[in-house]
Automatic annotation (TrEMBL):
Molecular function as annotated in GO: DNA binding; DNA-binding transcription factor activity
PROSITE patterns recorded: HTH_ARSR_2
Keywords: DNA-binding, Transcription, Transcription regulation
Provenance organism: uncultured Desulfovibrio sp
Lineage: Bacteria, Pseudomonadati, Thermodesulfobacteriota, Desulfovibrionia, Desulfovibrionales
Family matches, as CDD domains: HTH_ARSR (cd00090)
Keyword Transcription regulation: yes
SUPFAM superfamilies: Winged helix' DNA-binding domain
Gene3D superfamilies: Winged helix-like DNA-binding domain superfamily/Winged helix DNA-binding domain (1.10.10.10)
Ranges of residues in domain HTH arsR-type: 1-95
Name of the protein this chain belongs to: Putative transcriptional regulator, ArsR family
A Pfam entry, by short name: HTH_20
């Protein structure tokens, strides 16, 4: 992943609403949700939701598929994982002992951390 691509993704997620929206779709992966369901979960009017969905679609963080009269939105999980890898690939400059110390200080559950962030 190139830095310009990564910055586009982070810019798209910089809105609190878009971040909540993306996390909601991650929670409902792989099935995703139709727009009306998203609006209910986030308590957003349709026009506001449409604006935020467009931003995430443009960045490639979500996909959309037409289902009859409805549009189903899904999180792009492979891209999310690539982004996490981009953030952690150079962690601790290859010194695993530092990573272990940072893991211990983190409030993140070990199960959701990458298995190993140092090479």
């Amino acid at each position: 992943m190139e830095v310009t691509h990564a910055s586009t993704l982070f810019e798209a997620l910089s809105s609190p609403i878009r971040l909540q929206l993306f996390r909601l779709l991650v929670r409902f992966a792989p099935e995703g949700l139709v727009a009306g369901e998203i609006a209910k979960h986030l308590q957003l009017p349709g026009t506001n939701l449409s604006f935020h969905l467009k931003g995430l679609l443009h960045a490639g963080l979500i996909t959309v598929e037409k289902e009859g009269r409805f549009l189903r939105y899904r999180a792009n999980i492979p891209l999310m994982l690539e982004t996490i890898a981009y953030l952690t690939e150079e962690c601790c400059a290859g010194h695993p002992e530092q990573c272990e110390r940072f893991r211990a200080q983190s409030t993140v559950a070990a199960a959701v951390l990458p298995e190993r962030c140092c090479k």
